[in-house]
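Collaboration report, partner site 2.

Our partner group contributed sequences for two proteins of shared interest, and the home lab folded both. The records are reproduced in the order in which they were received, starting with the first partner submission.
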Amino acid sequence: MPSVKVRNLKNEELGEVQLSDAVFDAPFNEPLIHAAVRSFMAKARQGTSATKTRGDVSGAGRKLWKQKGTGRARIASLRSPLWKGGGNVHGPQPRDWSYRLPKKMRQGALRSALSERVREGNVILIDAWELEKPKTKELISSLQNLGLDGKTLIVDSLENQNLILSTRNLQRAKVVNCFGLNIYDLLFHEKLVLSRDAVKELEQLLRPVEDSGGGVGASPDEIPAETPPQKPKRTRKPKQEEAS
């Protein structure tokens, strides 16, 4: 069971917390994380690029010259894609690039990324983010005390307005709650800072659902199949002996 030391904003050790094996000690699954990142980035695409077809460009619809007898190539409309200023063929049109990734895959990717951050030693557990005023200068000094100079992801409650307002003008730090934690932020930020309440909430949200009869994460082959009730065998009646 992995353990992380609890610190305060002055980088003083206050104790140690045992983390859940199911959430913070999951095996590293690179293909699953890759699939989750692709799904997240696909949802972030605007999908607003568009080109004008022959029905969108301006131009007359009349036939410029007769079909035969001029020696020139036949033409139907000035808006044809064959002409300069005409419409575009098979160009991009506005569309939705997002697609739905199953919930179990999303949660599995988060467990794998969180566990890898714990094994790397890039997870810091804070007792509580208690800032007297919403000042960026005080937050920067607290991050420096903790040795956080790079990109930092802070997971805490959004009700902590002093923390949110203090990080609003800080580019290298981001504050999210447990419901807003995503796979892209976990990989983009080098350090992960969790509060005590955030750890408990993450363990409740990301704990694998136990299958009835198969246990946690049991494969379909390992789950015992229910044997249907066997029908009673039909017995043949003995033949009556022929009367001699």
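Second partner submission, folded after the first:
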Amino acid sequence: MSGIYSTKTPELSTLGDVDINLSTIANNDVLQYNSTTGQWDNGTIDLTPVLFTVYKSANSTTSNPVINWTTPEFNIGGGGWDGAGTYTVGLTGYYDINFQAQIQTNTPNTRANFISIRVNGTVVSSANNFMLNVTSGAEYLNMVVSKLLYLNINDAITTSATINQSGVINNSHLKIIRVSP
């Protein structure tokens, strides 16, 4: 048996392995293993979907790196939106957060551009890019940053962008999806 590994999962062999609370039993309950008691308990799984998307088409300058978004396209699932730049988590769980920004610059030279996702003010995911020797006319750079995070109720999500040397954010998009409880 060299090289073969097995793990033992908790078995449901008799009704003595189950502790069902009859006063709370409901449709769509599931059995969940409780490692503290060593028994299977009835419970629920919160599968409430969360989808939040917001889009900004107007230009943003470098003077304020936190992006002030427009009205959300979708806000399903109870998260809070302050109307400016902060999304507050309404349900604990795993979230897929995706932030895209199109940066436009017109000046030849070296430029450093930085975008980020922040949770409670702390950068949790970021991307940077250097544009060298832009010739003439407008040059466009599409930047994307995404992160899968476990978030708690009232965590605050913001995005920021720092565009150096006469650049603007031409278009940007933020998408937040709760992928599991």
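Feedback sent to the partner group on the second submission included the following. The mean pLDDT is 76. The domain at 50-180 is CATH 2.60.120.40 (Jelly Rolls).
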